[in-house]
Amino acid sequence: MKKTVEIVWLILIGLSIFAYLLGYLKYINYYVVALLLITTFIKVQLVIYYYIGLKNVTLKYRLIPTVWSITVISLIAVAYYLPLDKTF
Questions:
Q1: Distance (Å, rounded) from C-alpha 52 to C-alpha 18?
Q2: Which of 29, 50, 64, 76 is the most exposed place for a label (fewest CB within 10 A)?
Q3: pLDDT tens profile 5-54
Q4: Are 48 and 62 a contacting pair, CB within 8 Å?
Q5: How far from chain centre, in Å, is Cα 62?
Q6: Domain parsing of the chain, residue ranges
Q7: Residue 4, helix vs strand vs coil
Q8: Helix pair angle (2-24, 30-46), 10° resolution
Q9: Whether this model's pTM surpasses 0.90
Q10: 3-class secondary structure per residue, 40-67
């Protein structure tokens, strides 16, 4: 179990550094934002399963934070991509 948590920690650090470097280098376009939102969802799921400890509980308890994170990330995506529609 300790080895798994260490690997998850390294993945979280790697994804965070990746997101930081994209922002620091100002390499942001619409596809990169989608990629960052997907990696954010992956990071949230890793934290929920391994650090909060919901990996071995019933599905209904795992769905609550998962649905919450999908909702928040979807709202961020809508807020980011909504100004693209300038047809009026």
A1: 23
A2: 29
A3: 899 999 999 999 999 998 888 877 888 888 999 999 999 999 999 988 88
A4: yes
A5: 16
A6: 2-84
A7: helix
A8: 160
A9: no
A10: HHHHHHHHHHHHCCCCCCCHHHHHHHHH
